[in-house]
Write a structure and sequence with these properties.
- This protein has four domains: 213 residues, FAD/NAD(P)-binding domain, CATH 3.50.50.60; 84 residues, no CATH class; 115 residues, Flavocytochrome C3, Chain A, domain 1 (Alpha-Beta Complex); 148 residues, Fumarate reductase/succinate dehydrogenase flavoprotein-like, C-terminal domain (Methane Monooxygenase Hydroxylase, Chain G, domain 1).
- It is globular.
- The strands form six sheets. Strands 1, 2, 5, 6, 7, 8 and 16 form a seven-stranded mixed sheet that branches. A five-stranded antiparallel sheet has the order 10-14-13-11-12.
- With 583 residues, the chain is α+β, with helices and mostly antiparallel strands.
């Protein structure tokens, strides 16, 4: 079957996490028609489901006048300090301030209004970590994202002006002159090629982390959003800044995204500890009490263990909760019950860990007031952007802003520029060119993916340098030149052909990784989650800048730097050893 379906809509949302869901719901509230293209299943895939913690900002049940202005200012300041270090001082500070206020006035009320249950004790009080009260949880630690997305899914499926295309991947954005007027998408479950005409496109594809051997993301995170934006002419920003988890399960690989949180734990002052293979403690979350998301510091401590030969990035070190009160582990933490099913008792046993690729600090460069990319008709929302590291609260804020801009634009337009059918036809031909089963000795897409992942794990992982990154580029070029032309599918069926989807992913993965490596080579320092052993200093004098890139007229990446605006805070250090700062 070779079926093409044309759709007209007011707003097209690409992505089914919280950012895209909130945007779609707000647009729906305005009465406009929305189509959502979701690569996996709405609320069941992507990165939003993996959110374990929420940043505590104020008691949700006391929204209106529960705290005075001075206390609110203190909460905003605390949240801003956290988010600035969270983004290695590359985050948009004006955005961060507004997002902090939104947590209080927008995120919590919206959550409770729509049925989210915040973990409480027998007296009805919200359970926090002690004594700082930096975090809270929906139902149990480790389940917040899953339950929030269950809530969002039910809200969306109850709307008659939101159409959801699940198991459908966007393949390109369609333009007329300098304006985005829609997108093409492949329904790989039913073999339908969609040509979608829209007044506004909101890109909300989330993080791009399924690019190495170990990652927290589902198969959907193949950097489609970066590539869609880059090919449409948008700028990318700081995509060299790859975040990692340090305390995810080492073995088996199917459990690698099971996170043993270093974050503050519910109802206790204790936090996760890490031990090397000699049984020596090398990290305790309580060494950084003010940091509720200490992933950067975990990796800095782990890297020194790896350099000393006392651990590997894929094992030989262990997470421990054995010092935590047993009742806390039983009542409040989801991982405890999961581990019990496989015969591991976290109250008495440690678990071997490995690092995984997690979130991105960088992404598409935007106007954070409006979520506009600079290309008319093209907005983003959520972690696909380069303005903050992510988080469900920020994703919700982005969706709210993007929807507001989209509603204003859609209502101002009596019509949208027509699509150029020839461009849609070329894209369909490209997508269907992958639907081949020859040559029989060629590699399957999953085999090509594994070669890509292995190349990146070996050459462009947490510890990297100019030579290793050049080797990664060379190997990716070999894969592009030799493996992809011979790549073939196991079946030519157009129904539930995951090989077909993964062949499209391979193209996006190589493009995104080539871009990210070039960004990494350009930045001549180490910062936050980004470590170059040939430039081991954090250089705030020369490199407190955004690395920004776009595709020039010749089709090549053009890189430049843009100074970081620091209206509220900046690092006190100038040039300092990477391992000596906590951001």
């Amino acid at each position: 079957m070779n079926k093409t379906v044309h759709i007209d809509t007011d707003v097209l949302v690409i992505g089914g996490g919280l950012a895209g869901s909130k945007a779609a719901l707000d647009v729906s509230d305005s009465g406009l028609k929305t189509v959502m293209v979701v690569k996996g299943l709405l609320g069941r895939s992507g990165c939003s489901i993996f959110a374990g913690n929420l940043s505590y900002f104020a008691p949700p049940e006391n929204m209106a006048n529960s705290i005075d202005e001075k206390e609110l200012e203190q909460l905003i300041e605390r949240n801003m300090i956290f988010l600035l270090k969270y983004t290695h001082y590359l985050g948009d500070q004006e955005y961060i301030k507004k997002a902090s206020i939104f947590r209080y006035y927008g995120f919590f009320p919206w959550m409770e209004k729509n049925g989210a249950y915040f973990l409480r004790d027998k007296n009805g009080e919200i359970i926090n970590d002690l004594p700082l009260k930096t975090s809270f949880w929906v139902a149990k630690m480790g389940m917040s994202g899953t339950l929030i997305m269950d809530m969002a899914r039910k809200l969306i499926l109850g709307r008659d002006n939101i159409s959801v295309l699940e198991e459908t991947t966007a393949t390109t954005l369609l333009k007329n002159d300098d304006e985005v007027v829609g997108a093409t998408a492949l329904d790989y479950a039913h073999g339908i090629f969609y040509i979608i005409h829209a007044k506004v496109v909101i890109l909300a594809t989330g993080h791009s982390n399924h690019l190495s051997l170990r990652s927290t993301g589902t198969r959907d995170g193949s950097a489609d959003g970066w590539v869609l934006a880059y090919n449409a002419g948008a700028c990318l920003q700081d995509i060299e800044m790859q975040w990692y988890h340090a305390s995810d399960v080492a073995y088996p690989a199917t459990w690698m995204r099971l996170h043993l949180y270093p974050n503050p734990l519910p109802g206790t002052q204790q936090r996760c500890r890490l031990y090397n293979r000699d049984g020596e403690l090398f990290f305790d979350g309580n060494w950084y009490k003010e940091n509720s998301v200490p992933y950067i510091m975990q990796l800095k401590h782990l890297a020194r263990q790896v350099m000393a030969g006392k651990a590997r990035f894929d094992g030989d070190y262990y997470a421990s909760y054995t010092h935590v009160e047993p009742e806390v582990l039983d009542k409040y933490i989801y991982q405890t019950q999961f581990m019990e099913k496989i015969g591991v008792d976290l109250k008495t046993e440690m678990m071997e860990c490995g690092i995984t690729w997690h979130m991105n600090v960088g992404g598409v460069r935007i106007n954070t007031e409006t979520m506009e990319t600079g290309i008319p008709g093209f907005l983003i929302a959520g972690a696909v952007g380069g303005h903050v590291t992510g988080g469900l609260e920020n994703a919700c804020f982005d969706g709210t802003l993007a929807a507001k801009t989209a509603i204003l634009r859609a209502r101002s337009m009596s019509s949208v520029k027509p699509m150029i059918e020839e461009e849609a036809g070329k894209e369909k031909a490209r997508v269907y060119s992958y639907l081949r089963t020859d040559p029989r000795m060629g590699l399957l897409p999953r085999q090509v993916k594994k070669r890509i992942w292995t190349t990146i794990w070996n050459n462009h992982n947490y510890i990297k340098n100019q030579n290793s990154m050049q080797e990664a580029l060379n190997e990716l070029q070999q894969i592009r030149d030799i493996d992809i032309p011979k790549m073939r599918l196991g079946s030519s069926s157009t129904a539930f052909n995951h090989d077909w989807l993964e062949a499209i992913d391979v193209s996006n993965m190589i493009t995104a990784l080539e871009l990210a490596i070039q960004f990494s080579m350009f930045r001549k320092e180490s910062r936050g989650s980004f470590y170059r052993e040939d430039y081991p200093k954090t250089d705030n004098d020369n490199w407190l800048v955004h690395v920004v890139g776009h595709c020039n007229e010749a089709g090549n990446l053009l890189l430049d730097v843009v100074p970081v605006d620091t209206p509220y805070a900046k690092p006190k250090e100038g040039i300092v050893d990477f391992f000596d700062v906590d951001y």
